[in-house]
Amino acid sequence: MSRKLNFSAGPAALPEEVLKQAQEEMLDWHGHGLSIMEMSHRSKEYVSVAEQAEQDLRDLMHVPDNYKVLFLQGGATSQFSMIPMNLLRGKKTADYINTGVWSIKAIKEAQRYCDVNIVATTEHNNFTSAPTQNQLKLDASAAYVHYTPNETIGGVEFDYIPDTGSVPLVADMSSSILSRAIDVSRFGLIYAGAQKNIGPAGLTVVIVRDDLIGQTLAGTPTMFDYAVHAASDSMNNTPPTFGWYLAGLIFQWLKRQGGVEGMEVINRRKAEKLYQAIDQSSFYANPVAIANRSWMNVPFTLADANLDNLFIEESEQAGLLNLKGHRSVGGMRASIYNAVPEAAVDALIEFMQYFESKHG
Ligand code: PMP
């Protein structure tokens, strides 16, 4: 067996150690004679797995006690609707920061429920930066402020947490959760699809301050009500049991890597060396403002776009997978989430230098 180096944007690489553990536990989970997938979500064995995963995530992110941690389905995309349904709380407007593709999707969905006030946009520079705090035209009467700390496609990451005063801050952390230490108390709600830094697709994590829930828009479906999920410990119906279990294994793996603080050091180093390799070459380029370059998703172009297909072909032959950029932007993108080892980034840089020397 030879596993390749996977730079997929999501579903993304998982730690090999965790996959092996899941494999070992697959047929007979802890001597119970069945797999975790075949167990009732209400069994005491499964409930203990679920509770441990939640506790480990709380530990990793230092989640304060007045926050609920929910393990849901529907992807981050369902949160684009659940957020206005739950957080408008009788208000008519919400503030949104627009930094690219994922912000726009969130904005479009919110517009079905309220007046969306775009408090800053970087459309003028083709979404290659994040607005500064001073550029945010916040409305103190907005129900909440939504932003995308890391735009997965554009590779644009905020280098600060917006200060929104007493208005709850909502963050789509799909592609940046657990990548660096953050102060959860600065947020009203954090959400993330699991398939990048948490685990397999099919699980969505929501961390929400408990005073913000329980005041849903009239007509909100039961499954879209955070209060329902909070009251049932995310077991109002059958939760995504396997994804939740695997996320738990990842959380334990993260703890073994020194937690989020440990990952942050490694992630910074991985990103810095890749951007440095791009900047030092006149063959590769990244358009994002230096301060806003993503640690997780590194898009880059080749000096000659006619070489794109050859780059993909040769990189695959070298065992480097999924480097093709998103179809909307072209070029290349290396996603270097927590589970992508530093050695994979080193191998990518080496391949890029080899490719440039051959074709540049
Ligand atoms: N937000 C961001 C920042 C994302 O990167 C993605 C997925 N690429 C989504 C939302 C959508 O996530 P899902 O597919 O889980 O709905």
TrEMBL record:
L-glutamate binds at residue 42. Pathway: Cofactor biosynthesis; pyridoxine 5'-phosphate biosynthesis; pyridoxine 5'-phosphate from D-erythrose 4-phosphate: step 3/5; Amino-acid biosynthesis; L-serine biosynthesis; L-serine from 3-phospho-D-glycerate: step 2/3. The keyword Cytoplasm applies. Pfam families: Aminotran_5. Binds 1 pyridoxal phosphate per subunit. Its EC number is 2.6.1.52. Signal peptide: none annotated. Its main location: cytoplasm. The modification N6-(pyridoxal phosphate)lysine is found at residue 196. Keywords: Amino-acid biosynthesis, Aminotransferase, Cytoplasm, Pyridoxal phosphate, Pyridoxine biosynthesis, Serine biosynthesis, Transferase. It catalyses: O-phospho-L-serine + 2-oxoglutarate = 3-phosphooxypyruvate + L-glutamate; 4-(phosphooxy)-L-threonine + 2-oxoglutarate = (R)-3-hydroxy-2-oxo-4-phosphooxybutanoate + L-glutamate. One of its GO terms (molecular function) is O-phospho-L-serine:2-oxoglutarate aminotransferase activity. It comes from the Bacteria. Catalyzes the reversible conversion of 3-phosphohydroxypyruvate to phosphoserine and of 3-hydroxy-2-oxo-4-phosphonooxybutanoate to phosphohydroxythreonine. PANTHER family: PHOSPHOSERINE AMINOTRANSFERASE. This is Phosphoserine aminotransferase. The gene is serC.
